[in-house]
């Protein structure tokens, strides 16, 4: 069994992040000296304080319009960051549904210039700019940022946050039972094994909050095409995200504690 190390261990010991993916994941050790002040957040997740390395801050990402940017370009704002991939049929559609709702509430509060809502892919092989653009269009208005990069750059980016993207081939039986791709209608030949995370980065580009629970999302915000694409596991996640699931409330509470902004 793979050993889970670094920030995920700190998070679990604090009982702030109770529900991870069904797969076993290996996490990178991340500047553990900064975790001595890690504390459980009252509405879920874990507060921490860790500097983001220059190598990670400057990784070039591309948004749905093909515009390049990095975390360094977002310095001065709160960044809400989550991982996803467009071929995911079990968790990501609900993550994106929550991120859309959060972005709407941030806009309603007049804080869009203070907070960036960002989803970054873990699947650079499939997630081209055109594909993530088509995915986000399913949700309607582009009120938050979705981004991709090459697989090697995405692995460098996510490894810092303890996520190890790993392409796992699907067996013939799994290929037959899994939903066909929502965009192309093709049979998917692999899935990405990664730990779902949502986290907050402060204006000084310090990592301040983490939750590894599954998203507790409303089906009303999941596009019809992606509802049809959800696997059996995905439908179960939507109905029963489990203990430790992250909600809009948990995100807004963490933002308030870090920056003092009132949202929702």
Quick summary:
With 264 residues, this protein is of the alpha+beta class. The chain has helices at 7-13, 54-57, 92-108, 129-137, 151-160, 172-177, 224-229, 232-239, 248-259; strands at residues 39-40, 46-51, 61-63, 68-69, 78-84, 115-121, 145-148, 166-169, 190-193, 198-201, 206-211.
Walkthrough of the structure:
With 264 residues, the protein is α+β, with helices and mostly antiparallel strands. It has one domain (7-259): Glutaredoxin (3-Layer(aba) Sandwich). Helix content is 30%, strand content 19%. The protein is built from nine helices and eleven strands. The chain has helices at 7-13, 54-57, 92-108, 129-137, 151-160, 172-177, 224-229, 232-239, 248-259, and strands spanning 39-40, 46-51, 61-63, 68-69, 78-84, 115-121, 145-148, 166-169, 190-193, 198-201, 206-211. The protein has a nine-stranded mixed beta sheet, with helices on both faces. A two-stranded antiparallel sheet has the order 8-9. Strand 1 (39-40) and strand 2 form a beta hairpin. The longest helix has 17 residues, at 92-108.
How much of the sequence is in beta strands?
Answer: 15-25%
CATH superfamily: Glutaredoxin
Shape: globular
Rg of Cα set: 17 Å
According to DSSP, the number of beta strands is: 11
Low-confidence stretches: 1-7, 9-34
The ordered H/E elements are HEEHEEEHEHEHEHEEEHHH
Tell me, rounded to a whole number, the average pLDDT.
Answer: 89
Q: Total number of helical segments? A: 9
- What's the level 1 CATH class? Alpha Beta
The major sheet is characterized as: 9 strands, mixed
Strand order of the largest sheet: 1-2-11-10-5-6-7-3-4
Category from helices, strands and their pairing: alpha+beta
Number of domains: 1
Kindly report how far apart the N and C termini lie. Answer: 41 Å
Fill in the CATH topology.
Glutaredoxin
């Amino acid at each position: 069994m793979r050993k889970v190390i670094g920030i995920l261990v700190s998070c679990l010991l604090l009982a702030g992040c109770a529900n991870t993916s069904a797969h076993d994941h290996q996490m990178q050790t991340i500047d553990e000296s900064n975790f001595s002040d890690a504390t459980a957040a009252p509405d879920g997740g874990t507060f921490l304080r860790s500097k983001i390395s220059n190598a990670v801050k400057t990784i070039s990402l591309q948004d749905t319009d093909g515009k390049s940017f990095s975390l360094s370009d977002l310095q001065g704002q709160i960044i809400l960051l989550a991982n996803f991939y467009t071929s995911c049929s079990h968790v990501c559609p609900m993550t994106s549904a929550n991120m859309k709702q959060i972005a709407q509430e941030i806009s309603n509060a007049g804080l869009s210039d203070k907070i960036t809502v960002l989803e970054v892919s873990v699947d650079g092989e499939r997630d081209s700019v055109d594909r993530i653009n088509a995915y986000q269009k399913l949700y309607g208005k582009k009120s938050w940022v979705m981004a991709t990069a090459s697989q090697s750059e995405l692995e460098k980016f996510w490894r810092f946050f303890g996520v190890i993207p790993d392409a796992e081939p699907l067996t013939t039986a799994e290929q037959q039972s899994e939903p066909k791709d929502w965009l192309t209608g093709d049979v998917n030949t692999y899935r990405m094994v990664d730990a779902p995370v949502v986290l907050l980065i402060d204006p000084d580009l310090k990592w301040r909050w983490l939750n590894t629970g599954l998203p507790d999302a409303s089906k009303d915000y999941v596009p019809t095409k992606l509802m049809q694409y959800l696997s059996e596991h995905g439908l179960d996640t939507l109905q029963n995200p489990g203990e430790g699931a992250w909600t809009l409330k948990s995100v807004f509470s963490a933002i308030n504690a870090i920056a003092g902004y009132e949202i929702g």
